[in-house]
Predict the structure.
Amino acid sequence: MEDFFNDIASSFTKTFITDDRWLMLLKGLGATLEITFFALLIGLALGFLVAIIRSTYELNLKGKKSKSAGDFVIKVFNVICNIYITVIRGTPMVVQLMIMYFLVFASSRDGMLAAILSFGINSGAYVAEIMRSGIMSIDKGQFEASRSLGFNYSKTMVIIILPQALKNVLPALANEFIVLLKETSVAGYVAIQDLTYIGNLIRSRTYEAFFPLITVALIYLVIVLILSFFLKKLERRLRNSDH
Amino acid sequence: MTTDNDVLIKVENLEKSFDNVDVLKGISLEIDKGDVVVIIGASGSGKSTFLRCLNRLEEPTGGKIFFEGTDITDPKVDINLHRRKMGMVFQQFNLFPHMTVLKNMTVGPTKLLKQSKDEAEKNAMALLERVGLADRADAYPSQLSGGQKQRIAIVRALCMNPDVLLFDEPTSALDPEMVGEVLEVMKSLAKEGMTMAVVTHEMGFAREVGTQVVFIDEGVIVEQGKPDEFFENPKSPRLRDFLSKVL
């Protein structure tokens, strides 16, 4: 029995204390959060843009002849957005990451930048589809009421449609953020020392699998729980208007 | 009797087709200041499409619409500026569900007419007072009854200080006991001289406050006239047939 506790104490020490390995884990967590945060920003910006282009096309131009140069530009952009979404959703994240690192960033080998960009671009495709479905789910009457007051198309989008669409898709968006956080665990493929990579590194140095891997899993879980908590709160606040 | 100066909206030979189906086949109509034009017709006759063409929520495929002397079917015209002067009330109310009643009413004036928040809220409260809903200013649309929603929709349009109000079947989605309260508001507006174009099935309203009644069938105006004459002596067989069904 005593041996058992000694074993645990020793593997705990090896995993966390020796060589300041807890600090490594902390740094790994830092890298994971950094990638997630910046990829999230890129994903949101890209996703919103693509969603607005795609829904503008669907609402106004689908199946119609373009009447102006502007219409034509939107049609071209819509095709580009479609290709982007199809390619991103049709290929594995790890492959996209490696293409970004080994091909696009071949000369600089800046792993962090490659990872942020490629996770951001990946997330953008999913955010775009979520937002588009949100925009398309808003009743046509909302557009008409806004336009009848004299708001132009873009003000209608910003003031009337997007706030409602965002509220409707918030659970789906929250889910996408959580998926993004967890997907960054493949960043080790391009030599980034993120949380998962460090956990695995400690495992290979100490020949102890239990503590490093379970710790890593718990850290992801805790972050996801914190994220869900705040998003639930936000959702409740936005829901004020449907009593 | 009227001079050209009194004409607010002049529609010339308006046409609209959807995918090769002709919905409006050349409609001409003049709406003078202070007119209450009631447009009736069977469903599918094109009456709603006609109304929605007036502020180009539907793009006409032919003809011209002059609003205050400007041809608003001209693609070079900034339709948004003219829409500010043409309030619209919808069958399904279309209040903005994410905004309070007060915000619904002030969003247009503050963002488009550059009114200050205080000024816009003062106007809005005065209008709410008038329709007996001042105590609902901070409510969200989902907390209101249908009749209340429609009264809010009317005063929301009024907040923009429009020169004409377009009503697209404003009472058709209401429970019967709520129709009266909405019609009362519309009647009082008409009495004050508000110019209105109303698509409705409320023949009582047409008779009582209409200055001109228009019967549209199969995309053309079949008959139009003053309400008394129109309802007492319908000339065309199609109108007689329609009236016999709805009266």
Q: What stands out?
A: DSSP finds nine helices and no strands in chain A. Chain A has a mean pLDDT of 91. Chain A touches chain B through 22 residues (CB under 8 Å). The first helix of chain A runs from residue 2 to 17.
